[in-house]
Write a structure and sequence with these properties.
The chain is an alpha/beta fold. Helices cover 29% and strands 26% of the residues. It has 10 helices and 18 strands. A hairpin with a 2-residue loop joins strand 2 and strand 3. Helix 1 runs antiparallel to helix 2 and helix 3 packs across helix 5.
């Protein structure tokens, strides 16, 4: 696994702990948080270790193509635009914490996190203070997560609960008023009912079925600007966790796709239309396919706001069965971009794309653990790696994103 390689290379650096100086990750007990590398490793040292681990990992794949140097994150620390705290119910009390351990059963109460902006810490501190009040007892019992999404200047807070009832709404409204009064950067608050319990909750790319949600305050859409274009992203849809590196992703995707004005581009797992409306802007036609209805509706609105007449968006499962019809009109000059969830593509998806015969496919991997099997599927479908560029989308963690260009033959 790549995480094991990274920890091997970063190990010597991690022994040089910087201590409890300002800005370093701290728990509520004012001790050093060691959940990620940010608390004990300077970013420049982490980049060196990550490049060494990536080179070793890439050699094991035997693709025959060179791996480009790591594209570093402009914000090596305090970069996350999506974060969360899980509500742990212990002895009739609720404590917000990061998920520690493989199964997330132990809370790690954190006061300041080195990979999250300070604004996020202010939100969590204020929420924890308010949910301990007697007037928030029902909300506290139902609380599952607090999620913060947005930009480095504006935030949306999502209060996730097991169920929404009258008492929960009343108490959540009171929490919303207190939170927005003390944290002006919070420009929207949403109450969300969900019984799921994924480790990468609202941070992973998923189907996000339409459960009950109620807007408590403000405008809950996330307002983003990437590639010189403005986007609106629904609060419950996938959005990139490191906004500082997205423009570099867009630029490299455009270079790999290398679209002419006569080419068509297919963007699988398109979300709110980020790559369709940027890297695909110069194509004859850019088609985005996405499973989430909220994301597709946002993509259509984003395209309409800028008059992108070449773009269209389809709501469909990204499966072999669904893609067969969508890709039936693909020509040999066309290109595909796919940015699947952490678990990778469904069975048959890669094979279906290859059977359609695009000239190029750009495959983005946000979890390297699935990469060997996925690249082997491309190889069997007679597509080979031409270029690969790693991006440090998740500094401080064990994950790295790699964008891979594949071509027929």
């Amino acid at each position: 696994m790549f995480s094991e390689l990274l920890r091997t290379h970063i190990g010597p650096e991690m022994h040089e702990a910087p201590g409890l100086r300002p800005g370093v990750c701290r728990t509520q007990a004012n001790t050093l948080c060691t959940l990620c590398h940010a608390s004990r490793t300077e970013y420049t040292a982490e980049v060196r270790a990550r490049n060494a681990a990536l080179a070793e990992f890439w050699r094991t794949l035997g693709t025959g193509a060179a791996l480009a140097p790591l594209v570093g994150s402009p914000a090596g620390r305090h970069y996350r635009t999506v974060s969360k705290r899980k509500a742990f119910h212990v002895r009739d009390e609720v404590r917000l914490g990061l998920i520690e351990g493989e199964h997330g059963r132990r809370p790690l109460p954190v006061r300041a996190c080195g990979i999250e902006p300070d604004l996020h810490a202010q939100v969590y501190a204020r929420v924890e203070e308010m949910i301990h009040a007697p007037t928030a007892r029902r909300l506290a019992r139902l609380l599952r997560y607090i999620i913060v999404k947005g930009t480095y200047a504006e935030l949306v807070a999502i209060i996730s609960v097991e169920e929404i009832d009258g008492a929960a709404v009343h108490e959540a409204n009171a929490l919303s008023r207190g939170l927005t009064a003390s944290c002006p950067a919070v420009r929207g608050v949403l109450l969300y009912e969900d019984g799921g319990d994924e480790r990468y909750y609202l941070g992973a790319r998923g189907a996000a079925p339409r459960r009950s949600a109620r807007k408590l305050f403000g405008d809950t859409d996330i307002r983003l600007t990437f590639g010189g274009r403005r986007f609106r992203c629904p609060p419950l849809s996938f959005s990139q966790v490191n906004a500082s590196l997205v423009d570099a992703l867009i630029a490299e995707a455009g270079a790999m796709l290398n679209l002419a004005a006569t080419d068509d581009m297919y963007d699988l797992y398109c979300g709110y239309g980020l790559f369709t409306l940027t890297a695909g802007a110069g194509a004859r036609r850019a088609t985005g396919i996405e499973r989430s209805a909220d994301a597709v509706e946002a993509a259509v609105r984003n395209a309409g706001a800028r008059g992108a007449s070449n773009a269209r968006f389809l709501r469909a499962d990204i499966t072999e069965h669904a893609l067969g019809a969508v890709l039936a009109r693909m020509r040999g000059r066309d290109a595909v971009l796919l940015d699947p969830p952490r678990r990778g593509t469904a069975p048959g998806v890669i094979e279906c794309i290859a059977a359609a015969g695009p000239a190029r496919a750009v495959h983005m991997f946000c979890s390297l653990d699935v990469m060997p099997a996925e690249l082997e599927r491309w190889r069997r479908a007679r597509y080979g790696v031409v270029r690969a560029v790693p991006f440090d989308m998740f500094p401080g963690t064990d994950e790295t994103e790699i964008m891979v260009l594949l071509e027929r033959g």
